[in-house]
Specification:
4-stranded mixed beta sheet; 295 residues; 23% strand; 11 helices; alpha+beta; 4-stranded antiparallel beta sheet
């Protein structure tokens, strides 16, 4: 009996299918051009994302906010995805789960700030952090690796006004494109691909000193600085995540007009594909505004 169990556990992960989550890693965007670019280059590019850790008591000074390079995915079933798409955008690529495992995509850990686990993580970080983030390789230090895959169960986040109702709104500046809201992050079923940038010109973790300097000039300065950094990372192709069209299960667009644009793109731009391959790719397109009623 013990040997049978061992054999079962050691089988390749792709042989097992989740029951409550989708058997797919979804990556969403709010713009069609991000999807066409990914399809043309057969790559997804990591971006520095601002993550807050000030919810952790006694987190060392300098680590309260970090810019971390990542590509985000979720495995929410399509029938339960409407709220998620309203928040992040109604364009997406759905990948085979086995492709995600092969490329090191991992589920993040949601944590309560008062939990014993939070206390242990912060204690380990306090013992090893020397205030110089540039010298830290999180892939060699488990406590910092944990930090890159850590998020509170809920907290404040920014979102563009266009897709929000007022239920969870905390604040909104007059004329601003964003609102501060309270979000239950654990509903997102987030997984992350985090590239190892240790042998490149890019810093793995960017901490408070740089962020505060950008904040001093306003949120726009921070956003602009982050965009410039992300563009530079993209142009270098360091940490880019490659895929083949066979790794794709779904291509999600918002409406019929977007589908027409995407079909034109597939026909006219993906010249490496023959007619049959273009048809196969086109059959993976799903129009969200129509198909959501059927899930």
């Amino acid at each position: 009996m013990k040997n049978d169990l061992k054999e079962t556990v050691n089988q390749p992960q792709q042989k097992f299918k989740p029951h409550l989550s989708a058997n797919t890693f979804f990556h969403y965007s709010d713009q069609l051009k991000h999807i066409t670019e990914a399809l043309e280059r057969k790559k997804l590019y990591p971006r520095y994302s601002l993550e807050s850790f000030d919810f952790l008591e006694n987190i060392p000074k300098g680590l309260e906010k970090l810019l971390i390079p990542m590509i985000c995915f979720c495995d929410i079933k399509l029938r339960d995805s409407n709220e998620h798409l309203e928040f992040y955008g109604k364009f997406g690529l759905g990948f085979q789960r086995s492709w995600g495992y092969q490329n090191g995509i991992e589920s993040i850990n949601y944590i309560d700030k008062d939990s014993k686990r939070a206390e242990v993580i912060v204690d380990k970080i306090n013992k090893t952090f020397n205030e110089n983030l540039a010298e830290i390789n999180p892939f060699n230090q488990l406590e910092f690796l944990d930090l890159m895959f850590l998020k509170p169960f809920y907290g404040k986040t920014q979102k563009r006004n266009r897709s929000l109702n007022s239920e969870n709104t905390v604040s909104s500046n007059q004329g601003s494109e964003t609102k501060t809201i309270i979000k239950y992050f654990a509903d997102e079923n987030e997984s992350r691909y985090i590239p190892n940038l240790s042998n490149s010109e890019f810093q793995q973790l960017i901490g408070n000193s740089s962020i505060q300097q950008w904040y001093f000039h306003g949120v726009e300065k921070l956003n602009n600085a982050t965009e410039i950094l992300n563009d530079k990372l993209k142009q270098s192709e360091v940490g880019a995540l490659n895929f083949e069209y066979s790794d794709l299960k779904y291509i999600i667009v918002q409406n019929i007009e977007d589908k027409e644009k995407l079909l034109d793109f597939i026909i006219n731009n993906l010249n490496e594909l023959n007619i049959r391959e273009k048809l196969d790719l086109a059959q993976k397109i799903q129009i969200w505004n129509e198909s959501q009623e059927d899930y």
